[in-house]
Amino acid sequence: MATKQLQSAQSAPTPTRPKSTNGVINGTKAGVGDTRIVVIIYGQGQEKIVSVFADVLGKPYRLASSFTEVGSEDHGTVIGIQASDAKTNIKSRNKVLMVAINAHCVNLGMPPDVDLSSASDYEFLYTEQPFFRRDLSRFIAFTLGQISHHEALITKPRTYFISTTFPDVRTALSNLDILSVGSDAVEIRVDLLKETLPDGSFSSVPSLSYVGEQVMLLRQRTELPIIFTTRCTRENGRFPMDNPDLYYQYLYRAIQWGCEYIDVEVWLPEDIRRRLWEQKGNSRIISAFHDFSGTFKWPSPQAQSIFAESRKYGDIVKMITIINSMSENYELEYFRSQIKANNPDGPPLSAVNMGQLGQLSRALNTVFSPITHPLLPIVAAPGQMSAAEINGALSTMGQLPKKNIYAIGSFRSTPQATFFEKCFNELGLPHNFQSLDRGVRGSVEAFILQPNFGGAYINPPLNAATQSYIPLLSDAARTIGAVDTIVVRGDSFVGDNATWKGIRATLTRDFAPSAYANRAAIILSSSGEDAASAIFALRSLNIGTIYTVGFKSPAFAAGVEPFTSIESVQRVDQPFAIISALPPEKSHLVQPLLRHFSRDGGKGKVFVDLANGPRKGDPLAVAEQSGWMAYGTADTSAFTTVETLRLLVGQNVPYSFVRLASGRGLY
User: Fold this and answer.
1) What is the pLDDT of residues 280-297, one digit of tens each?
2) Phi and psi (nearest 5°) for 584?
């Protein structure tokens, strides 16, 4: 196939491959990640997927007929090679220069080519109808190291994961929004999957192609990180133990599929565990030990030895055992404290005791506690509890005291407030939740000084510079100049800002963070205060010049240029994003800009309308008709609610559940 140049590429130096911990979102700045040339291998008649990858990455693309046609001059361009052509020299490609992704459409009715799957760096499985662009966006952003869920999760006071114990994950999809409330990750138990054979029986081990489709279906329906687990027969699973290489084959493929975590049992030969560690890319390894004998003791040299062996090749060490007496829960807590004291740099320990006697340890464990849900067909292990049950136990023990949490502001201006009580009920939290009007000056201070104050969401936000009763401010709140969330931290309060995170989550829903790097953006607003969160969100994505309409830029906003005339608008190249922070009655004023930057064959990328309430015109419809990916306040508000709940109660409520609870289903 002759090389077809569709758009010009920018030349850049040949990069080195980053380590697995590079390129994460650290703090507020998006990382660069893997800067190698992205090469997409596509099936016959499936070249369209190359353009989608390129669009998600914000890059041009071209098609080539061989890996030898890809050179350093292709940096900044996505390359597509048809599968039949890629097979000829994929193994001899320059792996320092390029990252190869095998994109396979499962609708073709055949499994991926085994040789291409093995030789590629990663593999993306997708369906044409329906096509989930956000799935591709998450996959490419994660595998290229631009996002890292782990970096955020290890800083949380408590983390949970739910295990899908279904023989076919399709059974769980309709309830997944509810099942995953309170979970920080979702586990797919590969050993529990049942693949039907032509004669009606089930395969003893599900095939890689079947497992791959199951992972694809799960990722299409959840934004949570996926834990890929192949549990052996000795540890209450169904995977055979006579062929350790089988585990390597499946676990390495999970890395290629972009699973955020892989569960690697510590009984596997060290060579296999070491190879997986060296090849894990941006995936993280949970080094797992389970004991069902009833003879394992926490205060023993064996326990210390197992932890030492597990930590060699683990980002998280998981130790789970069956116990015979209540006192063994306290022995575990002493063991946990010793491990933490002797290993201050980690890896973190997730340890629980199984059975009814061990449920106390499940409540006390803070790192990736496995949880269940009443809607699951079976529990993954004896004694598992739901998130609501754990929260109830913590409340009974005095570890989760009842607090008063508030939504402060006019009821109409706080659409998130109606979701909070539903979320609290689903999580089993003991807190009271109230919506209050802002009232007179000083009324907020009166609420937060009450002894049972547990936090507040405030809309419109407070001026960060004038609230002397809030002793600490997050970097975001201080920079933006607005506090929309007050969080209790010990005996003190922290003023934070969740709105900018909601805006950034919206911006990166269908695009990789790197798509925004050094690109132009336009913000319309009636005031700098209303635009500040949007500016901060764009800056966190390494945006280029921000052009403004209707307001004076905040002091922190370097690299901002105002539009002063029609001529100044005409001098600007195609912006990657337009954000309107105009009030509802003025929101129609953005429509001429949307149309202007869609002329002459141009195509907009991202438009976000932050207006909430009755408005003139329909800028979202105009944006969509003009080729923009358009998002409204329902999207940003839902994402902001997710971030607000994480700040206030330290627990995760998925975006999909927030939309579901609001009466507007996501799908």
Assistant:
1) 999 999 999 999 999 999
2) -55, -40
